[in-house]
Structures are given as structure tokens and as C-alpha cells.
Amino acid sequence: MNDQSGKQRLQDDRHRTVQEYQKKTFEWIAGNGSAKGERDVLAKKLHENYWQLDPFVRARTVYDRTGMIGKNGKINFYPATAPVGGGIPTSGGADDLD
Predict the structure, then answer these.
(1) What is the spatial distance between Cα 90 and Cα 88, in angstroms, rounded to a whole number?
(2) Do residues 92 and 82 make contact, with C-beta atoms less than 8 angstroms apart?
(3) What is the pLDDT of residues 14-52, one digit of tens each?
(4) Cβ neighbour number for residue 24 with a 10 Å cutoff
(5) pTM of the model
(6) How far is CA 20 from CA 41, 43, 69, in A?
(7) What is the DSSP string of the chain?
(8) Residue percentage of the chain with pLDDT more than 90
(9) Which of 35, 57, 90, 94 could form a disulfide with 27 if both were Cys (CB 3.0 to 4.6 A apart)?
């Protein structure tokens, strides 16, 4: 979070990629079929960039602490155990019932 130069570099890269993505989208709409493939590559780059930028722009939630949202945004709706360092237990037993 304290790496402001790293955050700025990621944001600048994202801005350039968004501009290129929009340009390729307009070309694709205008009838340039090859622009769609290039646009798809840029979409993947935007996805990867978001998860690199994520620690700087999104607060950790219960979903992060329980392991439902993993590295690079991988979703696991039913994590087997809580991540290292605590969190909310995800498996209970008969002793959990009142």
C-alpha cells in the first residue's frame, strides 16, 4: 500500500491499455474483424492489471479473510479451511450447534 510509485505505474499502464482497448473496439465495430482478436488480448491484460492494482484500490473484506477470494481474484465459494492468520472458521461440527 505504501508503494505509491508502483501504484502510479500500474494506473498509467491501465490508462494506456484502456485507451487502446477503446480504439480496438471502435475498429471492430467499424468492420475490422482482426481488431477483435487484438481487443481480446487487451481485455486479458486489463484483467491481469486489475488484480495487480487490487491491493491499492480495494479494501479487504470477509470474502478475502475466509479465502473465498483468492490470489488474482480466483473465487472459491466453499473454501475448506480459513486462511493462515485467522479469519472466520468455514467448517463446523456438532459442537457448533446450540
Answers:
(1) 6
(2) no
(3) 999 999 999 999 999 998 888 899 999 999 999 999 999
(4) 21
(5) 0.69
(6) 11, 10, 29
(7) ---HHHHHHHHHHHHHHHHHHHHHHHHHHTT-THHHHHHHHHHHHHHHHHHHHHHHHS---HHHHTTSB-GGG-B-SS-SSPPTT--------GGG--
(8) 52
(9) 35
